[in-house]
Design goal:
Blueprint (H helix, E strand, L loop, with lengths): L16 E6 L5 H11 L5 E8 L10 E6 L3 H16 L2 E9 L1 E3 L4 E9 L2 H18 L2 E7 L2 E4 L4 H8 L2
Parallel strand pairs: 1-4
Antiparallel strand pairs: 2-6, 3-5, 3-7, 4-6, 7-8
Helix pairs in contact: 2-3, 3-4
Length: 163
């Protein structure tokens, strides 16, 4: 567990959590601006945006993401609760796309505020590592050779183990 040098608690943090599962495109910069405008108590805001990439073994024309409604949101709430238990955080925002996506489109946005930058950076990375392992999302890639479901990567599992 990471040290919490500020000694702060996050007793009110759950009210600051924001989770969205979206079937339409979203604008990460708008999400960043919302967090920036609504949290003046914390000095650090770290965000991560994951995008569809065309860097697989074969070219990817599109990707379809599925999720299990209800279960997915609960899994994300649990991951956020684990982050709040490790670090003194303000707002935590996770937005994730489902449906058909194309190269260059945002898939996931994670935003974290904290009093200290180290906590915000670590928490953001922790959230992404655990989202990849624990949130029930399934990806199907569409390539020139056909469709295929994307298997979990051992590198994602290793990233989550370090926490």
């Amino acid at each position: 567990m990471s040290d919490n040098p500020s000694g702060e608690t996050s007793a009110t943090a759950p009210a600051n959590n924001h989770i969205q599962i979206l079937d339409q495109a979203f604008e990460p910069s708008a999400m960043y601006q919302t967090m920036l405008a609504t949290d003046v108590q914390h000095g650090a805001l770290v965000t991560f945006t994951g995008m569809v990439r065309d860097l697989a073994a074969k070219p990817v024309n599109a990707m379809f993401l599925e999720h299990y409604p209800g279960m997915t949101e609960r899994a994300l709430e649990d991951i956020i609760a684990k982050a709040h238990a490790r670090w003194a955080l303000g707002q935590v925002s996770i937005s994730h796309r489902v449906g058909m996506l194309y190269p260059g489109e945002p898939i996931v946005f994670i935003g974290v505020t904290s009093t200290h930058r180290r906590e915000a950076f670590e928490a953001c990375q922790f959230l992404m590592d655990f989202l990849k392992m624990e949130a029930p999302f399934w990806k199907k890639e569409f390539t020139p050779d056909g469709e295929r479901w994307v298997a979990a990567k051992s590198s994602d599992c290793e990233a989550a183990k370090r926490w």
